[in-house]
Amino acid sequence: MPVLAPLQADRSAPPRLGEEQRADPWLVQLGLLAAAAAYLLDQATKHLAESVLVRSRFVPWLSDRIGWQLTYNDGGAFGFPAPSLFFLVVTVVVTVIVVRNLPIVRGPGQAVAYGLLLAGALGNATDRVLRMGDPGDLRYLHGHVIDFVAWGTFPRFNVADVSITIGFVLLIVSLWLEERRLDEVGG
Known about the structure:
Layout (H helix, E strand, L loop, with lengths): L24 H28 L6 E2 L5 E8 L10 H18 L6 H23 L14 E7 L2 E4 L1 H28 L1
Antiparallel strand pairs: 1-2, 2-3, 3-4
């Protein structure tokens, strides 16, 4: 009676729909390192901004339109008005997406992108949870995000915002490149 050999997976073929391959551990570590570095940089620069800047006073740096200006944002990007709880829920969603996808990334671009998205979301969430809002506003979970980078009339932003933006663009580009690579391999 013939013995059937177990089927071996073809590692060079792209996974079929619904199949996921685990990322190399170094890719996961790279994503977590990117998250940790961006988060620490965000928190350190916010602390520095609060230590040396006076609220709402513009300090020129590269020109009379690019510099530093400490502001406290109780909304979202571009001053989008919404309750702080909304942004905390968004942070939880982003965190779940990263935790779900980081172990299956296909390259360093995706790993760093997910790490930057996580750092940005957690950096601004930390402000909302741990930092108080306006003086006298002691409502729970109603802290304001510290923004301090001034660029003309563009809304003020911080390192977490930059991390989210770069992470999003990097993720889109890396997913697009991965799709092109799979199309070339498959067809």
